[in-house]
Write a structure and sequence with these properties.
Helix content: 40-55%
Strand content: 15-25%
CATH class of the domain at 79-251 and 303-311: Alpha Beta
Largest sheet: 7 strands, mixed
Strand order of the largest sheet: 3-2-1-4-5-7-6
Order of helices and strands: HHHHHEHEHEEHHEHEHHE
Number of strands: 7
Radius of gyration: 22 Å
CATH architecture of the domain at 79-251 and 303-311: 3-Layer(aba) Sandwich
Shape: globular
Oligomer: single chain
Length: 314
Amino acid sequence: MALKLPLPKIDKRGVALAQARFSAWWQGADFDPAAAAAEIDAKLAADAANDPGAEGDLFKLDAPPFDLRLDALQRIWGEGRVFPADAAVEATLPTRLGLSTTASLAVFGPGLVAPLQAFATTHLGEMKVYEWREETHALLRYGVAKAGLDKRASVATVDLETFSPPVGSLDGVISCDEFTYADNGPRLAQQIAKALKPKASAVIDCYAALPGGDLSSAFATSFLEPHLRAAGDIAGYFSEAGLTVAANDDVTEEHLAAAREGFKRLADALASGAPLQPGAGRELAWEAEAWRTRMKLLATRRLERRRILVTRPE
């Protein structure tokens, strides 16, 4: 029988002080050991008082390894984001589904936590999160826990081509770009139709365009290869799956405005002298070049952003 040795006791105070010292160095700020120690001691004491058996919030979360690409994307689109969006607009999407406070909202492909935080402002029930970008999954889980959403939001990794949610299990769906990247769009529409409860609805955000070689460079930095279709074809997938298409809105201007705001944010950050990790400049350059092309295609309507609302009949 193997000998079980006791685990070494973690010096929580020492670890927290080291984290604070590194954070100050990273931000270029002065480090005050006495002030940092007092703040940490107060937090540890509060954690112990609230839950003597708990380790405290400082030690519940292990941040995933630093990722240059995800850091670059968040510098452009904002913390917790890998694509452009307006949080105020995102907050309105759950209301379009007519969900009760006890209903469960399924969110496909938020990337990172910021969209979920926006949805949570208007949807007070639980959220089932299905993420297909493997690269974002660890940081998404971390972000959900850090934002305090882990009590009502579960996160699962899925494959766009094999994903099959349980039949009749979903009260409402918000889909973020699944129909931009899924190879088999009709199959995915059928899976959503089967999973929705009677009278339940789904909001589908995606790109739409007639396929062509001129689109390739606009998606050169995407997590998956895009499979673009005309807006009418995408809506047709849902009609063929037995769903009612209640709206098929062109939200290109809204999307383009969010993208422009992202690059303004990046320009302001770079002008302020924000520190960059080695290699981060290269990642930012790649993203900027791809998005320069994408924004041009959006501006000329060669590429569109669509928001489709579908409902399952009773």
